[in-house]
Amino acid sequence: MSSEKTIMLKSSDGETFEIEExxxxxxxxxxxxxxxxxANTTIPLPNVTGKIMSMVVEYCKKHAQSTxxxxxxxxxxxxKAFDSEFVNVDQDTLFDLILVSxxx
Length: 104
What we know:
Elements (H helix, E strand, L loop, with lengths): L5 E6 L4 E5 H4 L3 H8 L7 E3 L4 H16 L11 H10 L4 H13 L1
Parallel strand pairs: 1-3
Antiparallel strand pairs: 1-2
Helix pairs in contact: 3-4
C-alpha cells in the first residue's frame, strides 16, 4: 500500500481487506461512514463474503483510477470493457454482486 490513508474492511467469512480511502470512497455507504468518523477501526461487512468483497475491491480500484481531478469518472473504452468483463460471471456470483451493490 502507498502512504495514502487506508480503510480496513472485514467480510462475513473473516477475510480482511486493507484498501486506500480513495478506493473505499467509491462506496456511498462506506463514504458516509468515513464522513461520520465511523471508520477508525475495521468496518465489518456481514453480508459480503471474501470472494465477493475481493471483486468489489477490484471494481472500486478500477473506477477510482478512472476518476479525474474534478471527482468525475471518465468513462473510456477500457473502463467499458472492464465493466463488461466484470459482470461476465456465473449467475450466483452476479446475484451476490447485485445484492452487495444495493447495500454498499
